[in-house]
Amino acid sequence: MRQVFLASRNAKKLVEMRRILVEYVPDVEVLGLDDVTPYDEPAETEPTFAGNALLKAHAGVAATGLPSLADDSGLCVDALNGMPGVLSARWAGTAKDDAANNRLLLEQLADVPDERRDAHFTCAVAFAYPVGAGGLAEHVVHGEMPGRVTHETRGSGGFGYDVLFVADGDHRTSAELSLEEKDAISHRGKALRAIAPQVAEVLSAS
After folding, report:
1. What is the pLDDT of residue 184?
2. With 80 as the cut, is the pLDDT of residue 94 above it?
3. Can you tell me the distance from the alpha carbon of 109 to that of 128, in angstroms, rounded to the nearest whole number?
4. Distances, alpha carbon 200 to alpha carbons 18, 23, 42, 187, in Å
């Protein structure tokens, strides 16, 4: 088995990555954080999605010695000058309090009309791997899902801002889409599919 490490405990991300990679590398094994010896995960202190993803990918290589993938993503709202952006998970001050983040976002956009509620989800996926004697190579790709922010929460699927986000060309929020529908258009799915050929090339050469 050729192994690659994905710095995540999200079972859905791990399955998605394997599903994409197996088309290129049939014997691939995608390991997650729960499959390796625990290590200190870096704080997401960078001002960009790419910077945070690279921090996590580099830490993955250092801890496991394996080619490593990591991602960082968030919601960028035009009327808020691209915020919450990298602060998406802690926009209301408490990390990963989805309900509080959504309430704050709705409050901040309360007087913003429909035509000015454009937004997009963005995701950066970083891939880092050992080269030569102690060297490290890296690649970063981005994926985006354009759309707009609604005036109220709808749906019970997904997580984060999915209950407030409607993708271009649809009338349903991301939380109202099936997993298959969301995967086909999601920012993360696009980024993972974009990085897959590079991952496959590295794994095949190992």
Report:
1. 87
2. no
3. 38
4. 11, 9, 26, 20
CA 181-185-189 angle, 5° bins: 105
The CB density around residue 58, as the number of other CB atoms within 10 Å, is: 18
- Parallel, antiparallel or unpaired: strands 165-167 and 2-6: unpaired
In this prediction, residue 36 carries a pLDDT of 96
* Residue for token pair 């001050």: 93
- Report the distance separating Cα 194 and Cα 183, nearest Å: 14
Q: Is 49 exposed, middle or buried, given 0-12, 13-18 or 19+ CB atoms closer than 10 A?
A: buried
Distance from C-alpha of 87 to C-alpha of 84, rounded to nearest angstrom: 5
- Answer yes or no: 72 catalytic: yes
Q: What does the angle CA 57 – CA 202 – CA 205 come to, to the nearest 5 degrees? A: 145
**If 0-12 CB within 10 Å is exposed, 13-18 middle and 19+ buried, where does residue 12 land?**
exposed
Catalytic, out of 35, 71, 72, 170:
72
- 116-165 tens-digit pLDDT: 999 999 999 999 999 988 889 999 999 999 999 999 999 998 889 999 99
Tell me the whole-structure pTM to 2 decimals.
0.90
